[in-house]
Write a structure and sequence with these properties.
The structure is a single chain. The chain is an all-alpha fold. It has one domain. The chain is built from 22 helices and no strands.
């Protein structure tokens, strides 16, 4: 066996080098793991077995159903209906389209669980509409991208399932419930800053709908929103597992899209399956590679070393949590969410949950919100890239216009970090006290 310290250097150093060279993250994790295993004389079959074990989990079956349900609903007209529904509820205030954007993202996030899907679906309609009504391009893109962050913490979120697996079996139902209040607070915060900006820049209000139109639009939108109710209600009531509720929601989304809304022909389903399969292949290969990488982290006792280092810097709980948040936000600017959940959870979990006594549910929401913010920041924020492409503006210009929105997101993150009841109130109320 080789020197463990040098093996740790190989694992982390090669990982960092390949990232800098822009090697895809799945290959970065796999290559780092294989090279380190060769140095340690660990049979490569053991690495392959760890990869297989990483994806051989019943709870992960929920992910393909979530992805497929979100893809069906995003292409089947639900985003337009949610925009119209949100317009009825809040469009009459100053800067109404910005408020509608945030509220529609909140609703759509509860269906797709994906920030990128949110920007792609809501943004495709909202950004051109806002620009046409006189909103600045940087603000139109910025509010679309930052509000999409709600999608990763408002249930259902497949990222929460990934975290639950990485954390060793945390309750998915509790995680889903724990994300509700932070997600709503994030939405309200973005609405408040949007109203302030709209008042300063004199953005317009929206038209008033008649009672008949309001009823028709609400009826159509509620059918789509019921997808999220099936998933959340089934999990927290104990009637379904997360996997079963995702499968039922997928069937429901299929029926509503193709036999009720009927905006797209049934022939489009093949393309939806193909798109979902591409996303699923990326997610599952990433989980497999990250499982081998995580096993080597544990084998080399890197999480324990990281705990010691962090506690050496300071034992003050507040400073330590602030330090961890800064670290996660930084990592979120250079890596995507799913791999970071798989990599950072085994390293930080012993510190935050073991040493600082934070609930695994609160840590999960804090972690995912941190990394969700990373989706909206350069240089690799995928939600930001999509938003800028739709809005046809540079990343630099969009980022500058998003600074007030970033401030609100950080405030919400600090609230989640230091006020446990924001996360734990609903899980404890509905499912009883627990971790």
């Amino acid at each position: 066996m080789g020197n463990p310290n040098f093996a740790s250097t190989i694992l982390l150093g090669l990982f960092a080098l390949l990232l800098i060279l822009r090697v895809p993250i799945t290959f970065t994790l796999a290559i780092s793991s294989i090279v380190t295993a060769l140095y340690l004389n660990i049979p490569l079959l053991a690495i392959v077995q760890r990869m297989i074990q990483g994806v051989n989990s019943f709870s992960l079956l929920a992910i393909p159903f979530f992805i497929l349900a979100g893809e069906i609903m995003s292409q089947g007209g639900i985003s337009r209906r949610l925009i119209e529904f949100s317009n009825i509820l809040i469009g009459r205030v100053r800067g109404g389209l910005a408020q509608v954007n945030v509220l529609a993202s909140m609703f759509f996030g509860g269906i797709s669980g994906s920030a990128v899907a949110d920007v792609s679906s809501i943004g495709t309609m909202m950004i051109p509409m806002m620009k046409k009504k006189g909103y600045d391009a940087d603000f139109s893109v910025g509010i679309t991208v930052t509000s999409a962050c709600q999608g990763v913490i408002i249930p259902p979120s497949h990222n929460m399932i990934i975290y639950a697996m990485a954390a060793g079996g945390v309750s998915v139902g509790r995680l889903f419930l724990g994300g509700i209040i932070p997600g709503v607070i994030l939405g309200i915060s973005l609405m408040i800053i949007s109203f302030i900006i709209a008042s300063i820049r004199k953005y317009p209000k929206e038209q008033r709908y008649s009672l008949r139109e309001s009823f028709r639009i609400s009826k159509d939108a509620v059918l789509g929103l019921f997808t999220a109710i099936i998933i959340i209600g089934g999990v927290i009531s104990g009637v379904f597992t997360a996997t079963e509720s995702a499968a039922i929601a997928c069937l429901y989304a299929f029926i509503i899209t193709f036999f009720v809304y009927r905006e797209i022909p049934l022939s489009r389903f093949v393309g939806i399956l193909y798109s979902s399969l591409k996303t699923l292949a990326m997610v599952m290969s990433l989980i497999a590679a990250a499982s081998a990488f995580g096993w080597l982290l544990a084998y080399l006792k890197i999480p324990a070393a990281a705990t010691s280092v962090l506690l050496t810097i300071t034992e003050n709980r507040i400073l330590l949590l602030l330090l961890i948040n800064v670290l996660l936000i930084f990592l979120g600017t250079i890596m995507d969410m799913a791999p970071l959940i798989l990599i950072t959870t085994p390293i930080l979990y012993p510190v935050v949950v073991g040493s600082l006594g934070m609930s695994p549910i609160q840590f999960g929401v804090m972690l995912i919100l941190n990394l969700g913010i990373g989706l909206t920041t350069p240089p690799v924020g995928s939600a930001l890239f999509v938003g800028c492409a739709i809005g046809k503006i540079s990343i630099e210009k969009a980022t500058k216009g998003m600074l007030p929105l970033y401030v609100m997101m950080i405030i919400v993150l600090l609230m989640v970090t230091f006020i446990p009841d924001l996360v734990m109130f609903i899980p404890n109320l509905i499912m009883g006290p627990g971790a």
